[in-house]
Amino acid sequence: MAGHSKWSNIKHRKGAQDKKRAKEFMKAIKEITIAIKENNKNGDPETNPALRNAIQNARGVNMPKENIDRAIKKASGADADNYEEVSFEGYGPHGIGIFVDCMTDNPTRTVAIVRAIFNKYGGSLGTNGSLSFLFESQAVFTLSKEEISMDLDELQLELIEAGVEDFDIEEEVVVIYGPYNQFGKISEKLEELNLVPTNAGIKRIPLSTTALEVDQAKDILKIIDVFEDEDDIQEVYHNLELTDELMEHLANE
Questions:
Q1: pLDDT at residue 3 above 50?
Q2: 3-state secondary structure of 242
Q3: What 3-state class would DSSP assign to 84?
Q4: For residues 42-73, b (16+ Cβ closer than 10 Å) or e, as one string?
Q5: Where is 135: in which H helix or E strand?
């Protein structure tokens, strides 16, 4: 699975930094809200592992503690926002598969938005399950190298015992992958090792990727940008191969 961390970590947003920050905070608040809602309004991270993970992800985008506490208090109360998780799948231009994961308080509005984006940018919304052969769900954790005090070889051995199957070691981060049903076990192992991920969750990983010419690839990056700018959309996954040629072109833009 080497190379997927490049796919999963590179963001193609071109908006202002404050807009990006606001979007990241809203995603974190929705994740906190869902974690509490789906665990019987349990706002205690000590007894709600999903909330504990959501808080870690919020900290990973530098969300202030007071914002996190406020989100937990609201989600635990009677006036909590009623978000639900919905997913859509389809094809972008040039046959690239795209998964769109959303958290929304109005699924009817969200499906209309997603369909309109697919149609406007040369894609088509598919039926649920139509991309199941292109992606698999995996537990994915991103660790900052600065926070890792132990030898990386030793860390890998420790995590393999917990179910981790693959590692991508980059300049600043280590990304680890395991079966989605081992998410809890891997989380517990990281906690035992005093390692707090900057991001963790069940992600959709492409089983294979498709390379396109740069101009065609930019069509895919455009539709991804548009999806990611929508408030209802949490994550966008695709199977476009981020070739060296494409990355060099983007770096020089």
A1: no
A2: coil
A3: strand
A4: bbebeebbbbbbbbbbbbbeebeeeebeebbe
A5: strand 135-144
- Reported CATH class of domain 4-76: mainly alpha
Task: Return the domain boundaries, the chain.
Answer: 4-76, 84-133+207-251, 135-206
Q: What does CATH list as the number for 135-206? A: 3.30.70.980
* pLDDT 10s digits, 148-198: 888 999 999 999 999 999 999 888 889 999 999 999 999 999 999 999 998
197, 173 in Cβ contact below 8 A? no
CA distance readout (Å), 108 to 84, 89, 113, 114, 212: 12, 16, 9, 10, 33
- H helices of 121-167, where? 152-161
> How is domain 84-133+207-251 classified at the CATH fold level?
Alpha-Beta Plaits (3.30.70)
The backbone torsions φ and ψ at residue 54, rounded to the nearest 5 degrees and listed phi first, read -65, -40
- Two tokens, residue 136: 């698999």
What is d(CA 139, CA 149) in angstroms, rounded to the nearest whole number?
23
**Rounded CA gap, 15 and 19, in Å?**
6
